[in-house]
Write a structure and sequence with these properties.
Shape: globular
Largest sheet: 8 strands, mixed
Order of helices and strands: HEEHEHEHEEHEHEHHHEHHEHH
Number of helices: 13
Helix content: 25-40%
Amino acid sequence: MTLRRVNVVILVLLSIAFLIIVHRNLLNLSDFLKQDNTDAVPGMILPFETGFFSDRKVRTGEEIPVVITAAEERLGAAVAAMNSVNQNSKANVVFNIVTLNESVEHLRTWLSKTDIKHKIITFEPKILEGKIPDDPQKADLLKPLTFARFYMPVFLPEAEKAVYLDDDVIVQGDIQELFETSLKPGHAAAFSEDCDSASSKGIVRGAGNQNNYIGFLDFKKEGIKKLGMRANTCSFNPGVIVANLTEWKHQNITRQLEQWMERNVKEDLYSKTLADSITTSPLLIVFYKHHSSIDPMWHVRHLGTTGAGNRYSAQFVKAAKLLHWNGHYKPWGRTSSFSDIWDKWYIPDPTGKFHPIRRHSGDE
């Protein structure tokens, strides 16, 4: 009897020791995974908010994934853009909103007052270490979310196709038409070229004509010369992208873009007169003569540059299917052409943190 009790005690002690060892191993594994994810994963997809669709009419049919970024100081822009898409289409559009941790709660509160179907993705800026230069003079161009479009397949692992939109756009057509843009075999993306539409005559203040490759890349650098690209090749604007994500992954486009970003940090390959999006340069290299085209009316741009009000007639702007206020003057800022169109789609911030400057100034 005594021997049996001793055996039971020994067995219990061995079991406890085993459980302690297993517990410690699990904690170490958890710490390892957390560290590994921080270094390698550009973002994390948050779950749908509980009950978001309980009192809303849910759209069905083929899902159309739309990727858009939402920086804290520009949340109102992203919400207006999404609202314009949502109201002008009956399709089952799901917005994949890429933002930083600091903006998640603000964004959730704002969207809870809408019927915009969405997922929130938190972007990890550490993924950009060693890939963007430390240049205080270009701080606005180097904000982390600017590069989120490079990582679309990571954010949408199950999707075969997606649309990317900059936050300073308003969509007046049915996004399903843009989504159904036909891409040529082997092409991972479609863009709107800078030489094929009424938008092509845009002049960027301070940079001269940025309609071709020489406006974005330094053709005096050996790294660019070796590529054999023609300097006068028409450039494209990546503010609107229709992406074949299957082909994007197959060609490892994301890694190609990262490699050129890393090379630029070391070799300074971008044009010295670059005044527009710094994301354009690596895209131009990777997609040189290997991309499809978007209907020009689906990307009428330069509305944020000087003289846009004289460049486009009211009739043309009304007929455009997508308007893009790329440039210095934003429709939520103090001065902008056709800002009344943007106002139509703006949804006031329920927290009161975001105010279009024109409206806020007028109320004071």
